[in-house]
Design goal:
Elements (H helix, E strand, L loop, with lengths): L1 H13 L5 E6 L5 H10 L4 E5 L4 H7 L1 E7 L3 H4 L3
Parallel strand pairs: 1-2, 1-3
Length: 78
């Protein structure tokens, strides 16, 4: 339920972007789901692995960056 809430919230934000949104994937099972919905509101969106270099990020000129965490982050003790 919370994942869907954050997807909707981010998509509402993304509608006002004119540039590219970069999703850095840390292993989340819903990364491509998020990308799909961002692209549905006609915003350019690319997914890259967490191993992306700083130079690659700069070359993309992203207007926004989304960090998509892995499933182990949910189960990690505080």
């Amino acid at each position: 339920m919370m994942q869907r809430f954050f997807c909707v919230l981010f998509i509402l934000f993304a509608q006002h972007c004119l540039g590219t949104i970069l999703i850095i994937d840390y292993g989340s099972p819903i990364t491509h789901y998020i990308q799909y919905f961002i692209q549905r509101v006609h915003v350019d969106c690319v997914v890259r692995s967490y191993t992306i270099s700083e130079d690659e990020i700069v070359a993309l000129h992203p207007e926004g960056v989304l960090l998509s965490g892995g499933p182990q982050a949910v189960y990690k003790p505080n």
